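tool_call: predict_structure(chain=1)
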Amino acid sequence: MPRDISTADARYVASACLGAISGPDGATDEQLALLRAIAAHLWQLPDVDLSPEAALTAGESADRITDGSLRRRTRELMVMLELCRHPLEDTHAERVEEYCHALGGDGHGIAIVREYVSAGAGAAFEDWMRRFTPEAAETMEPVMVEISQVDDEEAAARIAQIEAELRAAAPGTLGAEFVSFCDRNDFEIGAKSLILFGHDMTHVISGYEATSIGEICNSVMKLMITDSDAHWLEMLASMMIHETGILFPGYEPHVSPLADPANIELVAMAMERGRATTSDYSVGDHMSMIHWPYDDVLAHYGVPPL
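tool_result:
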Protein backbone atom coordinates (compact mmCIF):
# COMPACT_ATOMS: atom_id res chain seq x y z
CA MET A 1 0.00 0.00 0.00
CA PRO A 2 1.56 3.38 -0.95
CA ARG A 3 2.74 5.05 2.25
CA ASP A 4 5.70 7.41 2.03
CA ILE A 5 4.53 9.62 -0.83
CA SER A 6 4.16 13.36 -1.29
CA THR A 7 1.00 15.15 -0.22
CA ALA A 8 0.22 15.93 -3.86
CA ASP A 9 0.61 12.28 -4.90
CA ALA A 10 -1.50 11.15 -1.95
CA ARG A 11 -4.32 13.46 -3.04
CA TYR A 12 -4.07 12.18 -6.61
CA VAL A 13 -4.26 8.56 -5.41
CA ALA A 14 -7.24 9.30 -3.19
CA SER A 15 -9.07 11.09 -6.01
CA ALA A 16 -8.25 8.31 -8.47
CA CYS A 17 -9.54 5.67 -6.06
CA LEU A 18 -12.65 7.76 -5.48
CA GLY A 19 -13.29 7.83 -9.21
CA ALA A 20 -12.73 4.08 -9.56
CA ILE A 21 -15.27 3.16 -6.89
CA SER A 22 -17.94 5.73 -7.73
CA GLY A 23 -19.92 4.98 -10.85
CA PRO A 24 -23.37 6.44 -11.56
CA ASP A 25 -24.66 5.60 -8.08
CA GLY A 26 -21.56 6.79 -6.25
CA ALA A 27 -19.34 5.05 -3.73
CA THR A 28 -20.88 3.31 -0.73
CA ASP A 29 -20.60 4.69 2.80
CA GLU A 30 -18.30 1.81 3.69
CA GLN A 31 -15.96 2.47 0.78
CA LEU A 32 -15.81 6.18 1.59
CA ALA A 33 -15.17 5.51 5.29
CA LEU A 34 -12.27 3.20 4.49
CA LEU A 35 -10.78 5.57 1.90
CA ARG A 36 -11.10 8.47 4.35
CA ALA A 37 -9.36 6.43 7.07
CA ILE A 38 -6.56 5.50 4.69
CA ALA A 39 -6.10 9.12 3.64
CA ALA A 40 -6.05 10.37 7.23
CA HIS A 41 -3.94 7.67 8.86
CA LEU A 42 -1.77 6.39 6.01
CA TRP A 43 -1.06 9.66 4.22
CA GLN A 44 -1.79 12.14 7.02
CA LEU A 45 -4.54 13.88 4.99
CA PRO A 46 -7.34 14.51 7.52
CA ASP A 47 -8.94 17.10 5.23
CA VAL A 48 -9.00 15.00 2.03
CA ASP A 49 -11.85 15.96 -0.30
CA LEU A 50 -14.02 12.92 -1.14
CA SER A 51 -16.91 14.83 -2.64
CA PRO A 52 -18.05 13.59 -6.09
CA GLU A 53 -16.42 16.64 -7.69
CA ALA A 54 -13.00 15.57 -6.42
CA ALA A 55 -13.00 12.25 -8.32
CA LEU A 56 -10.53 11.86 -11.18
CA THR A 57 -11.44 10.09 -14.40
CA ALA A 58 -9.36 7.11 -15.50
CA GLY A 59 -7.49 9.29 -17.98
CA GLU A 60 -6.85 12.04 -15.45
CA SER A 61 -5.57 9.45 -12.99
CA ALA A 62 -3.08 8.18 -15.56
CA ASP A 63 -1.91 11.74 -16.30
CA ARG A 64 -1.28 12.57 -12.63
CA ILE A 65 0.04 9.24 -11.27
CA THR A 66 3.10 8.47 -13.36
CA ASP A 67 5.47 6.51 -11.11
CA GLY A 68 5.29 2.78 -11.92
CA SER A 69 5.43 1.55 -8.34
CA LEU A 70 2.83 4.05 -7.17
CA ARG A 71 0.57 3.10 -10.07
CA ARG A 72 0.79 -0.54 -9.06
CA ARG A 73 -0.09 0.08 -5.42
CA THR A 74 -2.90 2.43 -6.47
CA ARG A 75 -4.41 -0.36 -8.58
CA GLU A 76 -4.20 -2.69 -5.59
CA LEU A 77 -5.86 -0.13 -3.33
CA MET A 78 -8.69 0.24 -5.84
CA VAL A 79 -9.29 -3.50 -5.66
CA MET A 80 -9.24 -3.43 -1.86
CA LEU A 81 -11.90 -0.69 -1.90
CA GLU A 82 -13.94 -2.53 -4.52
CA LEU A 83 -14.17 -5.51 -2.15
CA CYS A 84 -16.08 -3.24 0.25
CA ARG A 85 -19.02 -3.02 -2.15
CA HIS A 86 -21.78 -5.52 -1.45
CA PRO A 87 -22.68 -7.25 -3.61
CA LEU A 88 -19.87 -7.12 -6.16
CA GLU A 89 -21.46 -6.09 -9.44
CA ASP A 90 -20.18 -6.36 -13.00
CA THR A 91 -20.64 -2.66 -13.74
CA HIS A 92 -18.50 -1.62 -10.79
CA ALA A 93 -15.88 -4.30 -11.50
CA GLU A 94 -15.67 -3.03 -15.07
CA ARG A 95 -15.14 0.54 -13.82
CA VAL A 96 -12.26 -0.54 -11.56
CA GLU A 97 -10.78 -2.47 -14.50
CA GLU A 98 -10.96 0.69 -16.63
CA TYR A 99 -8.93 2.61 -14.06
CA CYS A 100 -6.47 -0.23 -13.52
CA HIS A 101 -5.79 -0.53 -17.23
CA ALA A 102 -5.40 3.24 -17.55
CA LEU A 103 -2.75 3.00 -14.83
CA GLY A 104 -0.79 0.45 -16.79
CA GLY A 105 -2.12 -3.01 -15.97
CA ASP A 106 -4.18 -5.02 -13.55
CA GLY A 107 -2.14 -7.04 -11.03
CA HIS A 108 -2.95 -9.79 -8.56
CA GLY A 109 -6.09 -8.32 -7.07
CA ILE A 110 -8.11 -7.40 -10.13
CA ALA A 111 -7.22 -10.72 -11.79
CA ILE A 112 -8.41 -12.75 -8.80
CA VAL A 113 -11.64 -10.78 -8.46
CA ARG A 114 -12.26 -11.17 -12.19
CA GLU A 115 -11.66 -14.91 -11.78
CA TYR A 116 -14.29 -14.99 -9.05
CA VAL A 117 -16.86 -13.10 -11.12
CA SER A 118 -16.36 -15.31 -14.18
CA ALA A 119 -15.66 -18.72 -12.65
CA GLY A 120 -16.60 -18.69 -8.96
CA ALA A 121 -14.87 -18.90 -5.60
CA GLY A 122 -13.09 -22.18 -6.32
CA ALA A 123 -11.29 -20.73 -9.33
CA ALA A 124 -10.50 -17.52 -7.43
CA PHE A 125 -8.95 -19.54 -4.59
CA GLU A 126 -6.82 -21.54 -7.03
CA ASP A 127 -5.66 -18.30 -8.66
CA TRP A 128 -4.80 -16.78 -5.26
CA MET A 129 -2.85 -19.90 -4.23
CA ARG A 130 -0.93 -19.88 -7.52
CA ARG A 131 0.11 -16.29 -6.92
CA PHE A 132 0.79 -16.61 -3.17
CA THR A 133 2.78 -19.87 -3.17
CA PRO A 134 5.97 -18.33 -4.65
CA GLU A 135 5.84 -15.66 -1.91
CA ALA A 136 4.89 -18.01 0.94
CA ALA A 137 8.41 -18.87 2.09
CA GLU A 138 8.98 -15.20 2.91
CA THR A 139 6.38 -15.36 5.67
CA MET A 140 6.90 -18.94 6.83
CA GLU A 141 8.70 -19.90 10.02
CA PRO A 142 12.18 -21.15 8.93
CA VAL A 143 11.74 -24.50 10.68
CA MET A 144 8.42 -24.98 8.88
CA VAL A 145 10.13 -24.42 5.53
CA GLU A 146 12.51 -27.22 6.50
CA ILE A 147 9.66 -29.50 7.58
CA SER A 148 7.82 -28.90 4.31
CA GLN A 149 10.69 -30.68 2.56
CA VAL A 150 10.63 -33.96 4.53
CA ASP A 151 8.26 -36.93 4.38
CA ASP A 152 5.01 -37.02 6.35
CA GLU A 153 6.30 -39.28 9.13
CA GLU A 154 9.32 -37.11 9.89
CA ALA A 155 7.21 -33.96 9.59
CA ALA A 156 4.71 -35.25 12.16
CA ALA A 157 7.54 -36.15 14.57
CA ARG A 158 9.17 -32.76 14.26
CA ILE A 159 5.88 -30.89 14.71
CA ALA A 160 5.17 -32.93 17.84
CA GLN A 161 8.61 -32.00 19.18
CA ILE A 162 7.96 -28.32 18.46
CA GLU A 163 4.60 -28.44 20.21
CA ALA A 164 6.17 -30.07 23.27
CA GLU A 165 8.83 -27.35 23.42
CA LEU A 166 6.21 -24.62 23.09
CA ARG A 167 4.05 -26.11 25.83
CA ALA A 168 7.06 -26.29 28.11
CA ALA A 169 7.70 -22.54 27.79
CA ALA A 170 7.32 -20.61 31.05
CA PRO A 171 4.31 -18.33 31.63
CA GLY A 172 4.78 -14.84 30.22
CA THR A 173 7.02 -15.98 27.38
CA LEU A 174 6.36 -15.83 23.65
CA GLY A 175 5.95 -19.62 23.61
CA ALA A 176 3.31 -19.56 26.34
CA GLU A 177 1.43 -16.73 24.62
CA PHE A 178 1.48 -18.67 21.36
CA VAL A 179 0.12 -21.82 23.00
CA SER A 180 -2.62 -19.79 24.68
CA PHE A 181 -3.60 -18.24 21.34
CA CYS A 182 -3.80 -21.64 19.63
CA ASP A 183 -5.70 -23.28 22.48
CA ARG A 184 -8.37 -20.59 22.83
CA ASN A 185 -8.95 -20.69 19.07
CA ASP A 186 -8.85 -24.50 18.93
CA PHE A 187 -5.93 -24.41 16.46
CA GLU A 188 -3.66 -27.42 16.04
CA ILE A 189 -0.05 -26.28 16.34
CA GLY A 190 1.55 -26.74 12.94
CA ALA A 191 -0.58 -29.73 12.00
CA LYS A 192 -3.16 -28.01 9.81
CA SER A 193 -0.87 -25.81 7.79
CA LEU A 194 2.86 -25.19 7.93
CA ILE A 195 2.25 -21.75 6.44
CA LEU A 196 -0.21 -20.77 9.19
CA PHE A 197 2.32 -21.38 11.98
CA GLY A 198 4.18 -18.18 11.12
CA HIS A 199 0.91 -16.38 10.45
CA ASP A 200 -0.38 -17.29 13.91
CA MET A 201 2.89 -16.06 15.44
CA THR A 202 2.18 -12.64 13.91
CA HIS A 203 -1.23 -12.59 15.58
CA VAL A 204 0.42 -13.21 18.94
CA ILE A 205 3.00 -10.46 18.40
CA SER A 206 0.55 -7.90 16.99
CA GLY A 207 -2.05 -8.70 19.65
CA TYR A 208 -4.89 -9.17 17.16
CA GLU A 209 -7.23 -12.11 17.71
CA ALA A 210 -8.26 -14.56 14.98
CA THR A 211 -11.55 -12.77 14.31
CA SER A 212 -12.66 -11.26 11.02
CA ILE A 213 -11.57 -7.75 11.97
CA GLY A 214 -8.50 -9.12 13.75
CA GLU A 215 -7.36 -10.84 10.56
CA ILE A 216 -7.84 -7.66 8.53
CA CYS A 217 -6.04 -5.50 11.12
CA ASN A 218 -3.14 -7.93 11.39
CA SER A 219 -2.63 -7.98 7.62
CA VAL A 220 -3.01 -4.19 7.34
CA MET A 221 -0.43 -3.66 10.06
CA LYS A 222 2.09 -5.95 8.35
CA LEU A 223 1.53 -4.26 4.99
CA MET A 224 2.26 -0.92 6.64
CA ILE A 225 5.56 -2.26 7.96
CA THR A 226 6.72 -3.87 4.71
CA ASP A 227 5.04 -3.08 1.41
CA SER A 228 5.73 -6.50 -0.16
CA ASP A 229 3.83 -8.77 -2.53
CA ALA A 230 3.55 -11.39 0.22
CA HIS A 231 1.88 -8.93 2.59
CA TRP A 232 -0.34 -7.50 -0.15
CA LEU A 233 -1.59 -10.97 -1.14
CA GLU A 234 -2.25 -11.78 2.51
CA MET A 235 -4.15 -8.52 2.87
CA LEU A 236 -6.15 -9.34 -0.25
CA ALA A 237 -6.95 -12.78 1.17
CA SER A 238 -8.14 -11.25 4.44
CA MET A 239 -10.47 -8.92 2.56
CA MET A 240 -11.74 -11.61 0.21
CA ILE A 241 -12.41 -14.04 3.07
CA HIS A 242 -13.73 -11.82 5.82
CA GLU A 243 -15.18 -8.82 4.01
CA THR A 244 -16.81 -10.52 1.04
CA GLY A 245 -16.56 -14.28 1.59
CA ILE A 246 -15.52 -14.85 -2.03
CA LEU A 247 -12.22 -16.68 -1.59
CA PHE A 248 -13.39 -19.99 -0.14
CA PRO A 249 -16.28 -21.88 -1.82
CA GLY A 250 -19.28 -22.07 0.49
CA TYR A 251 -17.98 -19.52 3.01
CA GLU A 252 -20.11 -16.44 3.64
CA PRO A 253 -19.30 -13.85 6.31
CA HIS A 254 -22.22 -13.15 8.64
CA VAL A 255 -21.49 -9.41 8.57
CA SER A 256 -18.96 -7.46 6.54
CA PRO A 257 -16.71 -6.21 9.36
CA LEU A 258 -15.81 -2.91 7.70
CA ALA A 259 -19.48 -1.95 7.50
CA ASP A 260 -19.09 -1.11 11.20
CA PRO A 261 -17.53 2.36 11.66
CA ALA A 262 -15.87 1.16 14.87
CA ASN A 263 -13.98 -1.45 12.86
CA ILE A 264 -12.85 1.20 10.38
CA GLU A 265 -11.28 2.95 13.37
CA LEU A 266 -9.55 -0.31 14.34
CA VAL A 267 -8.08 -0.55 10.83
CA ALA A 268 -6.90 3.06 11.11
CA MET A 269 -5.24 2.19 14.42
CA ALA A 270 -3.58 -0.83 12.78
CA MET A 271 -2.15 1.50 10.13
CA GLU A 272 -0.71 3.77 12.80
CA ARG A 273 0.70 0.84 14.75
CA GLY A 274 2.30 -0.45 11.56
CA ARG A 275 3.87 2.95 10.88
CA ALA A 276 5.31 2.98 14.40
CA THR A 277 6.67 -0.61 14.38
CA THR A 278 10.42 -0.60 13.78
CA SER A 279 10.94 -4.01 12.12
CA ASP A 280 8.85 -6.67 10.40
CA TYR A 281 7.67 -9.16 13.01
CA SER A 282 6.42 -11.55 10.32
CA VAL A 283 9.92 -12.63 9.29
CA GLY A 284 12.65 -14.26 11.31
CA ASP A 285 13.14 -17.28 13.54
CA HIS A 286 10.40 -16.99 16.14
CA MET A 287 11.15 -20.46 17.51
CA SER A 288 14.50 -19.14 18.73
CA MET A 289 12.55 -16.56 20.78
CA ILE A 290 9.91 -18.72 22.43
CA HIS A 291 11.62 -18.52 25.84
CA TRP A 292 11.95 -14.73 25.68
CA PRO A 293 9.59 -12.71 27.88
CA TYR A 294 6.70 -11.59 25.68
CA ASP A 295 7.36 -7.90 26.39
CA ASP A 296 10.96 -8.34 25.23
CA VAL A 297 9.71 -9.71 21.91
CA LEU A 298 7.51 -6.65 21.42
CA ALA A 299 10.44 -4.39 22.28
CA HIS A 300 12.68 -6.31 19.85
CA TYR A 301 10.36 -5.51 16.93
CA GLY A 302 9.31 -2.12 18.24
CA VAL A 303 5.63 -3.05 18.34
CA PRO A 304 3.51 -0.38 20.08
CA PRO A 305 0.84 -1.48 22.57
CA LEU A 306 -2.61 -2.34 21.29
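agent: The mean pLDDT is 86. Proceeding to next step.
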